[in-house]
Amino acid sequence: MGDFITMPKLGMTMTEGKIVKWLACEGERIGKGDSIFEVETDKTSLEADALTGGVLLKIYRKEGETVPVNSPVAFVGEEGEMIPDVGNETVFQEENTAPGQQKQACDYDLIVVGAGPGGYVCALRAAQLGAKVAVVERDMPGGTCLNRGCIPTKAYYESARRWREVWDCAQFGIEIQDASFHWERVLERKNGIVDRLRIGIETLLRKNGIERINGNAVIRKADTVEVDGKTYRCRHIVLATGAKAAHAVATAEQLQTTDTVLDMGQLPDSIAIIGGGVIGCEMASILNAFGVRVTIIEALLRILPAMDEEVADCLLKEMRKNGIEVLTGTTCKSITKSGEGYRVVLEDGQEIMPEMVLEAVGRVPECAAFEGLGVELSPEGYVKTDEWMRTSIPTVYAIGDVNGRFQLAHAASAQGILAAEHMFADQKPAAMEMVIPACVFAELEIACAGITEQEAKEKGIPVKVSKFPYSANGKALAMGAGKGFVKVIADERWGEILGVHIIGEGASSLIGEAVMAMRCEATADAAGEAVHAHPTLSEALMEAFLGAGKGALHQ
Amino acid sequence: MGDFITMPKLGMTMTEGKIVKWLACEGERIGKGDSIFEVETDKTSLEADALTGGVLLKIYRKEGETVPVNSPVAFVGEEGEMIPDVGNETVFQEENTAPGQQKQACDYDLIVVGAGPGGYVCALRAAQLGAKVAVVERDMPGGTCLNRGCIPTKAYYESARRWREVWDCAQFGIEIQDASFHWERVLERKNGIVDRLRIGIETLLRKNGIERINGNAVIRKADTVEVDGKTYRCRHIVLATGAKAAHAVATAEQLQTTDTVLDMGQLPDSIAIIGGGVIGCEMASILNAFGVRVTIIEALLRILPAMDEEVADCLLKEMRKNGIEVLTGTTCKSITKSGEGYRVVLEDGQEIMPEMVLEAVGRVPECAAFEGLGVELSPEGYVKTDEWMRTSIPTVYAIGDVNGRFQLAHAASAQGILAAEHMFADQKPAAMEMVIPACVFAELEIACAGITEQEAKEKGIPVKVSKFPYSANGKALAMGAGKGFVKVIADERWGEILGVHIIGEGASSLIGEAVMAMRCEATADAAGEAVHAHPTLSEALMEAFLGAGKGALHQ
C-alpha cells in the first residue's frame, strides 16, 4: 500500500510551506531519505525528504503553491497501484483547509475507539508525541484484557498456585494440618487488583491530557466520531474495538462465556469447557485447582492447536495427571438444561452432566461501531490493515483483536504504538516484522515465540531442534519445579533462532530473553554464549540455545 | 600479553609442516588474519594466517625447517614485551617433540585441577572439542557452588519462600489453621538435590570420556600434575582450585563458615552473621524465615556494597521489616564463648549474645596446589591471567575464583569454556568483554548486570537512569509481588544500555533478557520496543528500558 508525502512541519511555529521546486517527477522511483522537493517557509528554505521509498505516482501540488503542514503533496507507491484522489476525499479536505480553520473544524488529532490494551496504549503514545487525543469507551477502560481476561485469570492463577502448594509442601519441610479455601475472597482480591490497574490507566490518560468520552461510538465518516448523539471531528481514527466471545455450539441454553464466568458468585461442582485453546486450558487449570471437576471438550485432535505439539502434549499429560478430563476430536451434539445443571451429549454418544458449561471457542471481531464507514474487511470479518495498521482508508487505523492479526493484548499494544508513531512521530517507524511472544498460564506455564517445529517442516525450512529439560536445571530442582523443557528451533544453515518454546516454571519471564535474541537476530550459539547467571532457570534456555548450535554442555 | 604463532593443523592427518617462506619479518606489525608464512605438508601447501595481531617480535623457526603441529614458530606481541625463550622452556619441549614421542610422554591434552563449576565445565567443553582430559578433585565434584554454596542455599530458599507464604495466604483466599516446619526434612531435601546434581556431573564427565583423578594435586612443572604420588603428564593445565572462606575476625573461637553452616543438624535460636555481602544477606534471609533471630554486622556503611545503592537500600528495608537486625558501619571487637553461645562485643560497645556466629567476610584464593609452579600472582594472592585466562605460563590457565576476576560460579564456567576453546577449538574465540550477571536470593530476589549508577558517576559517563516499580506491573500485582523495581542505566549520548538492576519477583529469570540486550549492544529504545508478553513481569523491564530512552508508557 502506498503512502502520502505531506508538507513537513520543519519548525515549531511552521503552519504552512511553499513548494519552491520539485526535485523528482511523476513516474520516477525514489528512495527513502531522498530529497524530493524544496520548501520555503517564512523563516527558512529546506529540502524535504521522502519518508518512504517507491515510485512517485502522483504530484498533487504544483511548484509555487503554499500548502498547510501535514497536507498531502504527493503519493508514493508501486506501479499499477490506485492513486487516491485527495481533492474529493472527505478525510483530506480537513487537512487541506488552512491552519486557522483547521483548529475550528477539528476537535482532535486522534480519536481512539476502544480503551483496551491496544486503544489506551495507542492514545498514550500519541499524546506523548504531542497529539490531541480522545478515547471513546462504552464500558470500563482496560478492555477485555483487564476486565474479563488476562488480569482476572492471573489473579486467580496465583490463588490456584498457592492452594496447590499447600498440598505439596511436605517435601519442603512444611506440614499443614488444616487449611481451607474461600472463593469469595479470591473474587474480592481479583476485583481489587482490576480496580487498582483500572485506576492506573485512568490516571495515565488524565496525566497525558487524553480526553475520555464515555458511550457508544458510531463512525460513518473518516473524520467524524459520533458518541450518543454528539459529534467529534478528528484528523485520525484508530479502531480498537476488540473482539467478543464467539458462539459455536447450537443450543438454546445460555452458556457461560469468559465475560461471565470470571465473576461467578460461587464455584460449581463441575464444569464442561468447550474448547481446548488458551482460554479453555487456563480456566480448566484454575478451576481444577479450586476443586471443580473439569471436562474439556476439544473438536481438534489436540489441545492448544496453535502451539508446539510437544509443549501441548506435556501440558495435556500434566492436566490429566491432575484430574482434568480432556476429550479431543469430539464436539457437542446437544446441550440441554437438566435439573441444576446441563446434559451435554457428544458426537460420539458420550454424555456428561456438568453443573456449568463454559463456551471458550474463540472470539469474533467487534465491528458494530463502524459498520457504515466502509473499511475493507477480510472474509472472516476482520478489518484489513497494512503493515502500519492503516485500513483501506489511510487516516483510519485498526489495531488489536479487530484486525485479526493476533488475539493478544501485547500485540494490540505494540500495534497501537506503531500506529501512533506512524501518525505523529517525526520519524515514521519501520514496519518491522515483530516477534510476538505468547503465554499460557495453566497447570504448567507456557511461553513461546517464533515458529514451531511443525511450521518449519511445513514451510520446508531445514532446522536444528534442541530440547533441554527442566529436570537437568539446578534452580528448577531447588524450586521443586523439575517439570517441563525449553525447545529451540534454529535454522540449520545459518544458526538463526527461529522459534523458542518453553513449558515450565517461570516460562513467561524467560521468553523475553528469547524474544530479545530473535529481535537482535542472534544465532543460537551467540545466544547460548551469553553468560547466564547460576543457578537460574535461564540456564535451561542457554543450554537449549547451545544445543541448537555447537552443543549443550549439560547433556 | 603476547601470543605464540604455532604450526597450524591444516588437515586431519597432518602432524608436521615445513616453513617454506616467511611473509613477514621480525619487527613488522601484522594484523589478525594476515598471511604470515607459507607451509608445505606432505599433501598440500598453504599460507598460514595470524590468529592475533601485533608486532612480530620473534621468529623461532627458519625457512626450510620442518616443525610439528602446534609447536611455536613465532611470537607476536607489543613492542618492549618480554619474548619467551621457547628453546629452554619445559612447557614447550613437550610440544617440540616429534608426534610419536608426544603420544608416549603426554598422558592428557589437558588436566583440570578442581571439579567445581569452572573446572568441570572447562573439562566438558575441552572433551567436546576432542581433547583427552582428566580432572583432579580432592573432594566432591561440583565444588563450593554445588556442595556448600549456590545450590544448597537455593534449596533452603525455596523452603523459606514457601514457609513465608504459609503466613501470607489469607489475601489469596486460603486459610491455614495449623502448620509446622521441620528443619531435618529441609536438610534432607537439600542433600537429595545436591546428590542428584552431583551424579549428573559425574555422568556427564563419564559420558564425555573425562578421567577423574581423586586426590590432592601438586603442580611444580607446567606439564606435570602429581596426585598422591602418581605423576601425570599433559600439554595444558587449567587451575580451577577455587577459593576458601576468609577469616577476618580476631578470635580464638571456632566460628561457623558457609562450609559448615549449611549442614548444621539443628537451627540455632539466634545467629550473628559477620558480613553483609551476598552470602551474609542470603543466609540471613533464609534463617530469618525459619524463625532464627538474625543480626547482621557489616563493617561498611551499607549491605551489598558492590551492588546498586537503591537496590541494596530496598533489600535492607525489607530485611528490617521482616525482623532482621542489620548493623552497618561497625565491626566486632571481640568474640568469646559464653554459655551455650557467644558474646560478641562491637567496636561501638554494643554487645550481642547469639547462639551461633557465622563469618561471611569473603573468600581467599586456594593456591596451595601450585605453590611451587611459579605462576605470577596479584598482590592479593590471585593468579594473574590474560584475557583468555592464561597465566604467566602460557600453557597453564587459571579460571574461576582463583583468578579473582569474579566470585561467581557462572563466570567460572564461562571462563572455563573460553579457556577450553582457546586451547582446542579450530577457531580461537574472541576474548570479548563478557556481560556477567549476578543474583542474590534474599528477602527479595536481586539480579543485575553491567554498571551501577554510582559507577557511571565515578567514571564520568553521562547516563540516563530509569526506574519502573513492580507495583505498576499487572502480573506482579496478580502474583502479590508488588515490591521492588527495575532500574536501567543507559548512555545518555547513544542510548546504549550500560547496566540493569532488578529487585523483585523473578529477577533472576528476567536478567537474562537484559544480558542478551547488552550483549547485542541494543539501545534502551530498541530493547524496549521488543514486544513483551502481557501480563508478565518482563513488562517492568520493558518499561524501564523505554524510560531510559523515548519514555515509559505506563509512568
Automatic annotation (TrEMBL), chains A, B:
The record's free-text note on cofactor binding: Binds 1 FAD per subunit.
Alphabetized UniProt keyword annotations: Cytoplasm, Disulfide bond, FAD, Flavoprotein, NAD, Oxidoreductase, Redox-active center
Matches recorded under CDD domains: lipoyl_domain
Reaction catalyzed: N(6)-[(R)-dihydrolipoyl]-L-lysyl-[protein] + NAD(+) = N(6)-[(R)-lipoyl]-L-lysyl-[protein] + NADH + H(+)
First-tier enzyme category under EC: oxidoreductase
A Pfam family reported for this protein in Swiss-Prot or TrEMBL: Pyr_redox_dim
UniProt feature coiled coil, ranges: none
Family of the protein in this entry: Belongs to the class-I pyridine nucleotide-disulfide oxidoreductase family.
Extra remark beyond the main annotation: The active site is a redox-active disulfide bond.
Stated name of the protein: Dihydrolipoyl dehydrogenase
Organism per entry: Christensenella tenuis
Gene that encodes the chain: lpdA
